[in-house]
Amino acid sequence: MRRSLIGRTWPNAVASVLLVFFLFPVYWMFATSFKQDKDIVSRDPVFLPLDGTLAHFDRAVHVDHFWTYVTNSLIVTAGAVVGSLLIATLAAFAIARMKFRGRKGFVLVVMAAQMAPWEVMIIAAYLIVRDSDMLNSLVPLTAFYMMMVLPFTIWTLRGFIAAVPKELEESAMVDGCTRTQAFVKVIFPLLAPGLMSTSLFGFITAWNEFPLVNILSKQVQAQTLPLWLASFQTNSGTDWGATMAASTLFALPILVLFVFLQRKAVSGLTDGAVKG
After folding, report:
1. I want to staple 275 with a disulfide (CB 3.0 to 4.6 A). Which of 5, 18, 159, 184 is the partner?
2. For residue 212, what are the CA distances in angstroms to 55, 75, 140, 209, 247?
3. Cβ proximity of 221 and 211 under 8 Å
């Protein structure tokens, strides 16, 4: 019995330590955003800001063009997520249901694209956008973000479509549905967990991306929130209070979206990875 108790206790202890390890930076960011300036630069760490202030948040949201950054981030993120879902759903259906020449090769290309680091494409992306005279535009930025999340979306949705019994689709076609109608009425409603998990992944990827927008967007009208975060670092130093406040605001939409989609997103990531 003692051995059984120890066997149940140490995994929980390890999990608790890891939880504290990963959550502490988030807590420190959140706490620092409310600290007085003297507490931020103090040699003695202040873990609980009892005399907190909202001045850092006020400075963060009153920088020039703040709402331009917000609007641009929402546009490119929504465009990347919606575009990738539309293309990936059709591609995943073709891979899972249809037999065609080069199918296995296409799957390998999707996997290779998912594993490839997108940082190596920055120079090529810049040259393509520059030669197309589309620098400082949200269109190429949205397109590249969509390309970044597309392989993962295709691979995940393929697993969900492959897990749907073909008999359901065939029964709908026997009842008079076309193949397109059978897909829309039978398969698509069953893809909700996969759509949510891939949407969350795409949102986080596009929302957080910094190197590409830093290269392609040198003017404010095409810049996004990651560049807003970098604006608090100046030649005279870093405004840590405003930086932490801005980071807290920046992470808030992701946190809200994850809490809202948590159950479906987690099941989508696991089911889509093992099915099919």
Report:
1. 159
2. 31, 16, 10, 7, 19
3. no
| Residue 219 region by backbone torsions, left for phi larger than 0, else alpha for psi between -120 and 50, else beta | beta
Q: What's phi and psi for 257, nearest 5 deg?
A: -65, -40
Q: How far apart are the C-alpha atoms of 84 and 146, rounded to whole Å? A: 5
- Between the alpha carbon of residue 8 and those of residues 5, 16, 132, the distances in Å are 5, 13, 61
* Identity of the residue numbered 166: K
Q: Please say if the pLDDT value at position 269 is more than 70.
A: no
Q: What is the pLDDT of residues 214-256, one digit of tens each?
A: 999 989 889 999 999 888 877 777 888 899 999 999 999 888 8
Nearest residue to 194 (alpha-carbon basis) of 254, 274, 117: 274
Cα first-last separation, the chain:
41
Our measurement of the distance from residue 155's CA atom to the centroid of its chain's CA atoms, rounded to an integer in Å, reads 16
Using an 8 Å Cβ cutoff, are 242 and 232 in contact? yes
| DSSP secondary structure letter of residue 36 | -
Look up tokens 């026997």; give the residue.
174
Question: pTM (2 decimals)?
Answer: 0.82
- Per-residue pLDDT of 186-211, as tens digits, reads 888 888 888 888 888 889 999 999 99
- Contact at 8 Å (CB) between 196 and 237? no
Residue type at 207? W
Element (H, E) at 234: strand 233-234
* DSSP conformation letters of 89-102: HHHHHHHHH---TT
| 3 state DSSP class of 53 | coil
